[in-house]
Amino acid sequence: MWYLIVTARSLVWVLLTLFSALLMLSALLSPSWLISFPETTTFNNETVKFRPSVGVYSKCGRPAGVDHPPCTLLAVRGLGTEAHIYPDAWKAATVFIASGLFIMSVTVCMGLLSCCFQSIFKKSIFNISGAAQAIAGICYIIGVMLHPMAWGSSRVQKLCGRDASPFYPGDCSLGAGLYLAVAGTVLTFACACLSLPAEKSTSSDKVQDKIYEGQTLICLT
């Protein structure tokens, strides 16, 4: 017999899992982990304002023209980009954050499947997802910690001044991208913890009573 089981706790867990993954994706693509002072440049007697910044995988700088976007990819050649352009610590950070995102994407799919299947190979789909989310959170922590390790590189010192050093941003300020990454990491661990009550809610006595009554679509608060 096929059952569709949705509870308030399982729904909250799935939505938070999706939201945390989107937060980390935004953080990975954000050029605003470190932000410098606003600057201006002139093109054909037209003044253009911009604010240099750098993230894990993208950056913002002086635009090439009025109609050109100020933000571009930092790693034009991917992980093969030279270290003075794309520091090795940021390459490693990209790998760890992307690995965490892949794991979270899998758990989002598993969360959607949890409405129909509560176990895989006789193991609770919620417990498996919760363990995977904890691993993803660890990947995020490593990735976030690797980024400030390269703040003493020549690229960051050019942006933030010679005083910039590992874990000290110099003249730059911390941007929204870094805060998004921290928030996404915290939410990921929260999702790992919420997987336990989500699992209990889908196997509660109320759910069993609905199944005994012959219902195939079960929605509980």
TrEMBL record:
Main location: membrane
Pfam families linked: L_HMGIC_fpl
Tree of life domain: Eukaryota
One Gene Ontology CC term in the entry: membrane
Residue stretches spanning the membrane: 92-113, 125-146, 176-196
Subcellular location: Membrane
Protein topology in the membrane: Multi-pass membrane protein
UniProt keywords, alphabetically: Membrane, Transmembrane, Transmembrane helix
The protein's name: Lipoma HMGIC fusion partner-like 2 protein
Organism annotation: Phaedon cochleariae
